[in-house]
Specification:
alpha/beta; Rossmann fold; seven-stranded mixed beta sheet; globular
């Protein structure tokens, strides 16, 4: 079983060159600003303030590392916040892409998409980028609690149709408010990692 109680904040980095060498499996979280990355991390690991959340989009301007045994979980900056300067947007986009292209033991990316809306052009670009770079990913569909069961089913059809590679993507309806999808995320992690990795 996944021993989530062992996780701890490690460090934040504003440049790829500052990051420690990859020393074990890594899982990354990426998505548009305010899609709920930090809230998802907190819910998945059952900690209120593990990842800092904010009502202000674009708040995460660094790559934040969390460690669980030899496993790292990586909170990447959000993309697509229009109020940032073009230079800052370019810096953050470069930081995200440099991490995803780096020679690291990246096992899986969680590409978060807001379930209430169609995937944005930037969401589609990120999916294309991950496919082109042969980075495996799944798509948690956040804020699912805002939709009825019928609306969720309709939005799943939209996501499957509109996201690149949608027919082959594992979608996980997710809510940081209700806990919907947490067990599915744990199952994905446990499927990739042996129990021993979490007990080091």
């Amino acid at each position: 079983m996944l021993n989530i109680n062992l996780i701890a904040y490690e460090q934040s980095f504003g440049r790829i060159s500052q990051m420690p060498p990859s020393s074990g499996p890594e899982f990354a979280f990426v998505g548009r600003s305010n899609v709920g990355k930090s809230s998802m991390i907190n819910r998945v690991f059952n900690r209120k303030n593990l990842a800092r959340t904010s009502q202000v989009p674009g708040k995460t301007a660094t790559i934040n590392f969390y460690k669980l045994g030899q496993v790292r979980f990586v909170d990447l900056p959000g993309y697509g916040y229009a109020k940032l300067s073009k230079s800052e947007q370019a810096r953050l986009d470069g930081l995200i892409r440099d991490y995803l292209r780096a020679d690291r033991q990246l096992e899986l990316v969680f590409l978060l998409v807001d379930m209430r809306h169609s995937p944005s052009p930037l969401d589609k670009q990120m999916a294309d980028f991950l496919i082109d770079n042969e980075v495996p990913f799944v798509v948690p569909l956040t804020k699912a609690d805002k939709l009825s069961a019928r609306q969720q089913a309709l939005q799943l059809e939209v996501m499957t149709r509109e996201l690149p590679g949608g027919q082959d993507i594992t979608f996980i309806p997710f809510s940081s408010q209700t806990g919907l999808g947490v067990e599915a995320v744990h199952a994905v992690l446990e499927d990739i990692l042996s129990d021993e990795a979490f007990n080091i």
